[in-house]
Amino acid sequence: xxxxxxxxxxxxxxxxxxxxxxxxxxxxxxxxxxxxxxxxxxxxxxxxxxxxxxxxxxxxxxxxxxxxxxxxxxxxxxxxxxxxxxxxxxxxxxxxxxxxxxxxxxxxxxxxxxxxxxxxxxxxxxxxxxxxxxxxxxxxxxxxxxxxxxxxxxxxxxxxxxxxxxxxxxxxxxxxxxxxxxxxxxxxxxxxxxxxxxxxxxxxxxxxxxxxxxxxxxxxxxxxxxxxxxxxxxxxxxxxxxxxxxxxxxxxxxxxxxxxxxxxxxxxxxxxxxxxxxxxxxxxxxxxxxxxxxxxxxxxxxxxxxxxxxxxxxxxxxxxxxxxxxxxxxxxxxxxxxxxxxxxxxxxxxxxxxxxxxx
Amino acid sequence: xxxxxxxxxxxxxxxxxxxxxxxxxxxxxxxxxxxxxxxxxxxxxxxxxxxxxxxxxxxxxxxxxxxxxxxxxxxxxxxxxxxxxxxxxxxxxxxxxxxxxxxxxxxxxxxxxxxxxxxxxxxxxxxxxxxxxxxxxxxxxxxxxxxxxxxxxxxxxxxxxxxxxxxxxxxxxxxxxxxxxxxxxxxxxxxxxxxxxxxxxxxxxxxxxxxxxxxxxxxxxxxxxxxxxxxxxxxxxxxxxxxxxxxxxxxxxxxxxxxxxxxxxxxxxxxxxxxxxxxxxxxxxxxxxxxxxxxxxxxxxxxxx
Lengths: 359, 305
Hints:
The complex is a heterodimer of chains A (359) and B (305).
Chain A: H1 2-17, E1 29-34, H2 44-59, E2 63-68, H3 75-86, E3 91-94, H4 100-109, E4 114-118, E5 127-132, H5 134-148, E6 153-158, H6 163-177, E7 184-189, H7 196-208, E8 213-216, H8 222-229, E9 233-238, E10 249-255, H9 258-270, E11 277-280, E12 287-289, H10 297-311, H11 339-343
Parallel strand pairs in A: 1-2, 1-3, 3-4, 4-5, 5-11, 6-7, 6-8, 8-9, 9-10
Antiparallel strand pairs in A: 10-12
Helix pairs in contact in A: 1-3, 2-9, 3-4, 5-6, 5-10, 7-8
Chain B: H1 2-30, H2 38-56, H3 59-83, H4 88-107, H5 133-137, H6 141-159, H7 161-171, H8 173-178, H9 183-209, H10 221-231, H11 236-258, H12 265-285
Helix pairs in contact in B: 1-6, 1-9, 1-10, 1-11, 2-3, 2-4, 2-9, 2-10, 3-4, 3-9, 6-7, 10-11, 10-12, 11-12
């Protein structure tokens, strides 16, 4: 409801005030961004906006950026994207899964404008897709958690049971199992991406039920804060959250879109932009691990070695055999699951004593 | 047993903002005004409350800032609906949009900051009592304030003349006016009280619940508070039951998931809302004490001069 109102308000403002392309900026490349949340969410949208600022810093007065925040996924998105096109933006980043179809629709309508859609799977001649291999970071977190959990019970706050989140849970538990084969994970679905109060309640529930390392796939630092209050350990999400748990955060998976955004803007400036499908991980620095803190040196070393092995291409979180909950091996063509299998992951691996909701 | 204690503590914390905001809205609606801007007043209260506490280091000052901010926003609403006789539903919705935008603006500088949350009561001896000690004597001040508030409002509405007059304004503003009561002024105070409560409820979130500010952190609690007033059929006692029931279902569903109880989480997330619908049906079917909505709720009153 919140985003709907905001988007409606934003659309109204756009219509009233207009962000018409000013003539003075005729030779500048205009780059537009659509955000699903507020730039101050300290998570997903915050990181995208950091990358936008990096683009500005890199190219100075050669580019001009515009962003629309709190744009709800759905019909409003289409209107907002089109507004950016009409305002003269030649490269437009739409930064949430739900913008996939609206972006595609607008892209078909304006073949001379280039679009970049995050985390989706539909592509077009003038529409690229990009995403991050966050599960690589989750695997490292699993290894650390396996070492650091005294109770052998991890607490995981999920947002929605979609492949992106499920692959994260699986990567974590596979990583943890390399240290402690009997590790347990308790999973609570918040059924929201963002509700600090509910995320805090979920973290409390997990700790009350015996989990001593908390991790999350929701967007606020609430869980980190609760873990810090209760003297437990936790991982950050999307951005650096050490401020909310100086003695709590082990590391955090940081979404670092800046290298990609800079590369794409550069391609656009050079006239070499082409539609691509990019899924960068630790190696491409799309996924960056926050400093390994609050852990003994041997665990830190192990985490660093794991990270190095993934970057070197020697270690794959989903290396075969991957065993499902039913004890059967998942069909595997190479020595690790292919991207399609990871992107569509809808099952838990062996060792997770729970069921995927709705299955 | 320890787990039960932990659950009850979480339930109290989760229910308190709902109870405070709903108490304010109940008084507003009892005077005949429907203010749908609770969410907006709450989020501005959250931003200002956090700012106050951040700059002064005092939770009390923070809470007061929240109250003042909520009241000021309510005054805008009062100016529109009481002064200019604008449609209350539209104004309330607009107030929510305004509040969300305003809170983002006010709170832009607070993002990433953190404060020490409100302290919890400690009575030597009593707080250490097994089982009930922490639940009864170990809460933060907001929890006690919320309970005093709702008891006070019950007493005011049903045991004082002023409360009777306020209810009269909500049930039939023409009669109240004919009897010589200043309907608009009474409603103004009721709207301001509602704003103050919403502001306090919003401030509770960054001051005690999750001690940091993030835009949109009320995450729909204002709308739940509105539903609670209907759920309670505009009665303070039922409001307490409703708020704690809502909190209980929310927390229990999280615990059930963590314990691996095999009910779909989507269903459990929807449970509190489902419970509201069921109770609404039950209330409206019961002949005794059925729907007790203030008869003049949401209607514009323009005194003839």
